[in-house]
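Appendix B, example 12.
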Amino acid sequence: MMNRRSVFVCGAAALVAAAASLPSAAAAQGMPSLQIFVPAAPGGGWDQTGRSIELALRTDGLVKDFKFEHAPGAGGAVGLPRFLGTKKGQGDAIMVGGLVMVGSLIANKSPVKMTDLTPIARLTGEAEVIVVPASSPFKTMKDLVDAFKADPTKISWAGGSAGGTDHILAGMIAKAVGSDPKKVSYVAYAGGGPAQAALLGNQVSAGISGYGEFAEQIKAGKLRALALSSDKRQPGIDVPTLKEQGIDVELFNWRGVFGAPGLSAEQKKALIDLVVKMANGPTWKSELTKKDWTGILLTGDAFGSYLDSEITRITGILTDLGLAAK
């Protein structure tokens, strides 16, 4: 017969064994809170990315509390210095950014660089789409290009900030059809939301953005999609590519997240582990499908090397298109 002490010891041992078989509290909870800094206006692609990150982390039980901060302007050239200056060493803060910021910082001759950030993860890739209002006389990309070649000043292109992905694509299209990219009448907006409002109000001839930003309005018949910038047609999207229509241009937008400067190796690893866990979770995968995004996860130092190569590539494109000083 076991005495009371024996029962207690055995019971305690069983509890210890059971606890050892469970994940640690830190692993289960992920991170108690997270600051998400969006260097653009609400409603655009970076804001959508940030909101999807929040949804996935919250739904999958990885982070409980969130604080959003927006600092729109110049494709991140306004927000980046603010993030760098106010979040240094803070391991619970991330900034959303991407290819748009690479070009914008170059075009705006920004004194700060994306390499001042801590690279955490490249998350998504997305084809750009060229759209016109539903009432537009331009039914095809050829119609739009013919009008542009006849008189570039009469065709206005709405998109994100100057020097960003949308601007780059407009310039690449102009160059590919034999026109001077400098003659593109480009109207820069602080984000996809304001650009969409201008299109729906028939204030501009055409718009360029990531497909996800215009998807709802395209499906609702309020905007007409003329072309995608991808190398081939995208699954579930009935829109021809620029290449299919005789315009030899291909551009793929990417977005990711960055940590503040001055993070310790442990802080950097914690953020990377959190994002990897999120990216492999069910909610994020569902968001990729709903938003027509392609998951292209690349983390840490490998993402840092990729960023260096993108800065070099986009500098060359902007110089060729006359959007950056030689």
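The first strand starts at residue 31 and ends at 38. The domain at 127-245 is CATH 3.40.190.10 (D-Maltodextrin-Binding Protein; domain 2).
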